[in-house]
Amino acid sequence: MHRSKKAIPPSSDKPAKTALKRQAEVFKALGHPGRMAIVHALGHGEVCACDLATVAGCAASTTSRHLTVLRHAGLIADERRGQQVFYRLACPCVLTFAECINRVDAGENVQTLRVACCA
Question: Where are the alpha helices (H) located in 30-92, listed in sequence order?
Fold first, then answer.
């Protein structure tokens, strides 16, 4: 069996270990359906924390933990206004990646897809 040989990028093109660790942290933060639901909801704009438990489909305490994970990963930001806390996406390009996944699942050829920050 003959395998095609692909060129391995030179070591100068390889991401630094710190960058790889950071990327893994972000993917880990996105690794729960409840957190992905929150990210998608925030893709429509700022949302009060009080409304996110319904979006995430879990208890308020669990939603709070999800928000902490997403915030520590740098994916969301929060702003307190009086008694309420509002959340927004700090890294909206995660939705571009999520859409790419949907397109691949739908059988679309995304090899030439270049949008937003992925260009």
Answer: 33-42, 49-56, 60-72
Q: Cβ–Cβ contacts within 10 Å for residue 113, how many?
A: 14
Query: In 10 A of CB 73, how many CB atoms?
Result: 19
The dihedral region occupied by 88, where left means phi > 0, alpha psi between -120 and 50, and beta the remainder, is beta
- What's the pLDDT score for residue 101? 85
What are the chain's domains?
19-91 (1.10.10.10)
The candidate with the shortest Cα–Cα distance to 91, out of 64, 70, 110, 113, is 70
pTM for this prediction: 0.79
Are 37 and 55 spatial neighbours (Cβ–Cβ below 8 Å)? yes
Q: In whole angstroms, what is the distance from residue 19 CA to residue 73 CA?
A: 13
pLDDT at 47: 96
DSSP-derived 3-state class of residue 99: helix
One-letter amino acid identity for 87?
A: Y
